[in-house]
Amino acid sequence: xxxxxxxxxxxxxxxxxxxxxxxxxxxxxxxxxxxxxxxxxxxxxxxxxxxxxxxxxxxxxxxxxxxxxxxxxxxxxxxxxxxxxxxxxxxxxxxxxxxxxxxxxxxxxxxxxxxxxxxxxxxxxxxxxxxxxxxxxxxxxxxxxxxxxxxxxxxxxxxxxxxxxxxxxxxxxxxxxxxxxxxxxxxxxxxxxxxxxxxxxx
Length: 202
What we know:
Elements: E1 4-13, E2 16-21, E3 24-29, H1 32-36, E4 44-53, E5 58-63, H2 66-76, H3 83-92, H4 95-104, H5 107-110, H6 118-136, E6 141-142, E7 148-149, H7 153-164, H8 169-176, H9 185-201
Antiparallel strand pairs: 1-2, 1-4, 2-3, 4-5, 6-7
């Protein structure tokens, strides 16, 4: 399993980046979002990666962040959503926007992606919401101590959305409740992800 690549960017084209590590060039399929964040050719780059092994091919997918990688994993866990459709969605929406769409039931937002029709978008929203419910159990969000706290409004949506990105309800609840619950949902998610990233670096 290749978790990440850190090397020199030697080639790019729409949907593809080649990173040279130790003299070997790794071709990664990427979203437009990741493509926009790539440095110039010959410069150092780091991509989080996911590998997909098929009978006829081994594919490597690269992402600008672990949040995008986690969102890709969640999307491809939905029946009928392959890597191509997941990259298409992540080319149109940020991981935060995908999470908000799933948590709020906004399937129309997903249809902005090429190749994602209304039926597939609805299935994605339903299955991702179901996965989050299974993680969270009963209504309300558990803290690490096991107590159930009923977050209100935007905070509740942000916690559900972070579940779409792979965070447990307890992790999400403890992080989101640090911020003003009246902030927009996407802002709560952005601030929470920023804090998660800081904690990982400590």
